[in-house]
Amino acid sequence: MTAHGGNAAGGSTGREPHTDELRESPGADGRSMGNLELFFDLTFVYAMSQVTHLMLSDVSWQGFGRGVLALLALWWAWVCYAWLTNMFDVARVAHTTLIILAMAAMMIAVIALPSAFTTGAFVFGLALLAVRLINAGMFIASSWRDEVESASTIRRLVPGLLIGPALIVAAAFVPSPYRELLWVAAAAVDFGTPRLAGTNGLRVVPSYFIERHGSVIIIALGEAIIALGAVASEDLRHPGVLGAVVCGVLISATLWWTYFGLTTGAEERMRRTAAEDRPRLALDAYSYLHLPLVAGIVFFAVGIRVSVEHVDDPLAPLAAFALTGGVAMFYAAEVAYRWRDHHQVTVDRLLAAAASLLVFPMAISAPAVWSLAVLTVIGVLRLAWELWRRPQIGTGRAGTVR
């Protein structure tokens, strides 16, 4: 159930090139993630847990807003290192050491995250600034012998890497709401810098880039599973809790299948894109549009935890919004991602997003386990349709997980 745009996917001319000369040889783009990246990403496993903890510690609009701001800061830190390891070889001892030092700084920031807007504000900001300083230094050092255009682009991007965390450090010295406003400004600098500075000359390795972003989806889903298990273990004798656990796993599985059922087509799409057009596609489809995918899962993790804690009761409006809105956000972000990637509207995902939002009235008026059951049915029905019809999206058939 897909609708095609007039131009099937775009490079700079708005069309997807199919000529053999734009295809890379299998060996040229066959690099995959290494153990260093997997080790580095362990900090983000803990980071997702800390973001949900921050939201759960203050279930209010202010608490949710702060959680979103924290996620924005952490996400862009991860994005910058994903681009670094995509573009340059970091297997040398010096580079590996610097990545580990950045990991240590990130770990300090993550530990301070629950108090990042109160007593831990300065520690969080300083640690995040250290993470970005290492990142910027590695970018500059690695690009020294690179192509002129690539090195020039990196020099334009580097100031934005440092201004954002510097604003978060400054936020530690002002009270709310000015503190939060500085975090908003930091996010605007982070996300706006690539648009202003451009991405000309940057390199994208399709297999590596798609695999790396798939790993962060797994990390986010892992947090949803951890949140589910952590609270369910307290009352396993309750039939409703057991049912909620089953529903939570099934919902997570349908989200997983929704995303990973199209990774083959996504990688082929990137390979077919001309090298000079890949950075813009990678920035839009992955650096930007994967954020709402991750955010949707994080909201769902918050919602599922509250749902299991109050399995026999209706949810408070914010918890209900996290649960139903998180699932809806994931499906809606999937629609936006696939549109940017292939210029096709995945109508089944759009319908699933709308249906998930419509569960909200039930979530605030009926036992939480019922809402989980309905969200499970929505996800299973959408997936069943996809596995039955196997629609072609881009160059891939939906539903095939490798």
Automatic annotation (TrEMBL):
The chain crosses the membrane at residues 64-84, 96-117, 123-144, 156-175, 214-233, 239-262, 288-308, 314-333, 345-364. Signal peptide: none annotated. This is Low temperature requirement protein A. Residues 1-29 are annotated as: Disordered. It comes from the Bacteria. Residues 15-26 have a biased composition (Basic and acidic residues). It holds the Pfam family LtrA. InterPro entries: Low_temperature_requirement_A. The keyword Electron transport does not apply. Keywords: Membrane, Transmembrane, Transmembrane helix.
